[in-house]
Amino acid sequence: MNIFGFIIHPLNIDDVVNSCKIFRITPKWFLERSLKWSKPFKVCEAHLTPSIDEKIKGYFIGVPLLLRQMLSLDERLVLNKIISAVRIAESLGAKIVGLGGFASVVGDKGITIANRSRVPVTSGNTYTAYAVLKAVLDMTKVKGKNLKWSKVAIIGAGGSIGSLCARKLSFYASKIFLTARHREKLEKLKESILKLNSIEVIIEDDNNRAIRDADIVIITTSSPQAILNINDFKSGAIVCDVSLPKNIIGDIDSRKDVTFIEGGLIKIPFDIKYLGIGIGLPQNIMYACMAETILLCLEKRFEKFSLGDNINIEKLEEIGRISKRYGFEVMYQ
Ligand SMILES: NC(=O)c1ccc[n+]([C@@H]2O[C@H](COP(=O)([O-])OP(=O)(O)OC[C@H]3O[C@@H](n4cnc5c(N)ncnc54)[C@H](OP(=O)(O)O)[C@@H]3O)[C@@H](O)[C@H]2O)c1
């Protein structure tokens, strides 16, 4: 049976507190500090049976670091912990390992981790970008919008998912606004977009200005906290936030005039049996990065499929075709 590994980590201290009874009576500051010295461990195992003659198994390996710690602690310490987690998956027989949460964001986005592992590693970002684009393009049709006449804003466009979304959307849109923290990356992205299509690409320094009047907004930043307010979107806008944690502050129900999509959620056509504490997701729903790892395992494509910033449009089409073949569906809620 083919086996995959998937690296996970708690987003915040409450995730840790809720994972074990004894942690509920442990002071949070102590818990958080002790995580730094804790080793990665096997959280649970999952059995997937897509058809009678097909079975795969997955091991979820926990890196005991909060999102905040992943971003603030010494990068070598964080990467070493992730690499140890990948090695645990490898020792359990995994033939490919996916990087969940910020394991795919820290450092050079999986490249160092992959170079120091014997087993191929994937960030899952190609399928995540595919899921974002599919949801946005489908919803645009449902809402009767024409991308050619829409203002599109990509918040966090300098990154792995954002830049792929921007390049692909340049085939449909005529005006795209890009934001990130560093302008240089966006300048390079603009050049590569203009080589693909001659459209209007505007680099914007201010996230709020970029979303003002935008008809389509894709949010794909690595910001650990919300950066956009629910009240600042244009009435009638379609907003897809794939960031984890979510980047929008405010009550989504208070803006019935805006279509919000939780980006990067996939529904699979068979159940997953979790042995152990599970990973807190409904039976057949998962994040796209996890779904990419599963698809590659089902396809026996044990390769470094998505790594770093340089993921490409051809792979986007390819992972889309593979996912359709297995009946994986992009969710819109
Ligand atoms: N739902 C899923 O299945 C799924 C899967 C994978 C990832 N994700 C989430 O998707 C997000 C993006 O992942 P990624 O791998 O593409 O990350 P990434 O490559 O690190 O890119 C993040 C981008 O966000 C920008 N950014 C950070 N803070 C910002 C701010 N305050 N304002 C504007 N831009 C900001 C960065 O700017 P610079 O370029 O200037 O640094 C970068 O361009 C993360 O939140 C990740 O957790 C979700």
State the end-to-end CA separation: 33 Å
Strand order of the largest sheet: 5-4-1-3-2-15
The value of Rg in angstroms is: 20 Å
Roughly what percent helix? 25-40%
Given the structure, what is the number of helices? 11
Task: State the domain count.
Answer: 2
Unreliable spans: none
Beta strand count: 17
Q: Encode the helix/strand succession as letters.
A: EHHEEHHEHEHEHEHEHEEEEEEEEHHE
Tell me the β content.
Answer: 15-25%
Shape: globular
Give the biggest beta sheet: 6 strands, mixed
SS class: alpha/beta
- Give the ligands present: NADP nicotinamide-adenine-dinucleotide phosphate
Mean pLDDT: 94
Structure report:
There is one protein chain. 34% of the residues lie in helices and 23% in strands. The chain has eleven helices and 17 strands. The protein has helices spanning 13-17, 28-35, 67-72, 75-91, 111-115, 125-142, 160-169, 183-196, 207-211, 288-298, 313-325; strands at 2-8, 41-51, 54-62, 96-99, 121-122, 152-155, 175-179, 200-203, 216-219, 228-229, 238-241, 248-249, 259-262, 265-267, 272-276, 285-287, 329-330. The protein has a six-stranded mixed sheet. The relative contact order is 0.16. The protein binds NADP nicotinamide-adenine-dinucleotide phosphate. NADP nicotinamide-adenine-dinucleotide phosphate binds at residues 101-102, 104-105, 109, 124-125, 128, 155-156, 158-162, 179-182, 185, 207, 220-223, 227, 242-244, 264, 287-289.
